[in-house]
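Hi X.,

You mentioned you wanted examples for the new student's onboarding notes, showing what a folding record looks like when two proteins sit in one file. Here is a clean example. The first protein comes first, with its sequence line followed by its structure tokens.
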Amino acid sequence: MNLFGKTSELQLEKDASSRYLPVVISSMIFLAALALAGLFSISAAVENWSSEISGNLTVEIQHVGGDAQDRKVEEVVSFLKRTPGVETVRPISVEEAASLLEPFLGRADIIRELPLPRLVEVTISENSPVDLNAMATTLNKAIPEARLNTHRPWLDKMIVLARSVQFLAAAIMLLISIVTVIIVIFAARTGLVMHRDVIEVLHLIGARDTYIARQFQTYFARLSFLGSLPGLAFAIIVMVLLSLLAGRLDATLLSAPTMVLEGWIALAMLPVIVALLTLFTVRWIVLSSLKRMM
């Protein structure tokens, strides 16, 4: 089948009814591409968040004042270095903590005077079978002022939110697919009505229904394929702009969502998928309609 060939007998290219079908398909592809990009980028972001946070822990030491605070930090560091599975231990100084809080609380010299807890950054070795609950309990018994923060509750909430957004994006894609099929069915039926006389003549001279359906499916598949290209291009431009804007944000806690290779392949396949969906939809609707016309 020649997708880019012309329908010689029916002259479907002259139909005004399908003239705006590429514009509609382009709009649908634009929305579908954004939803698909959201699915893959959020999935990649969840994996990145899990890998970045699962191996990083923070020990919070409550403020006790004076030199006792520094002694507690040394005790925590010594305890963690003796713990199997701990790769690195780094105490965060008061100056570093003040600089981290400065964008939110104001001048760093004032923040240093506040009764801030001391923090110790801990990295767990990869694939290390460390029981974090047991580690937290043992640490708290040894040093009651210290509390281990695994970031897991926060990460679980972020994953639930990300999965909800993914579900919404999948629902949007399903809705777009249904609307696209309905639009194609309406355009194909309109074309059948407009060319009813020509179709009857073709039947009289021995043309088969499959031959007539082939002309319709070739024409509408070509319209869908060519119409999807501008929508896909515009969606990629929007995604690149959003990625550049996200990259300029000062997001030190988490990395911005990025598209993976599988996502780009899925985006590139969208025009082909839409063309095939249109082809089989038009073939089915034309053949079923021609049977009723006989």
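Then the second protein repeats the pattern, sequence line and then tokens:
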Amino acid sequence: MTTIKTLTLVDDDDIFVFLTTKIIEQTNLVDLIKVFGNGLDAINFLKENKNNVDALPEIILLDLSMPIMNGWQFLEKYNKLNPTIGKKITIYICSSSISPDDITRAKTISEVSDYIIKPITKDKLIDLIKKL
């Protein structure tokens, strides 16, 4: 089965991050998990490493509700940055929001591959990685 080098979690919920990290580790499909507690730190990392494809993740799991820079704001910045990034990054919104408005809005953003309602399961993670 395909493995990926890096998966990035952008989420400020320590419990979700801890549990999701454990689930990802159990799959044995991801070499490195990077965690950012807000969108600003994540977007700054992407800007700093846009030409270093080895440092960039294959997948980003993005929460919507975070301090400093939320998921929507991250996506706005990412949309502008994306053409300069030397690697295709697959972004999944991973949120506890079940709002139809959020789900519909996410589907209008071309950089978002899917909307996943928390919690994320091991089977779902394996499916995401297989789709790459």
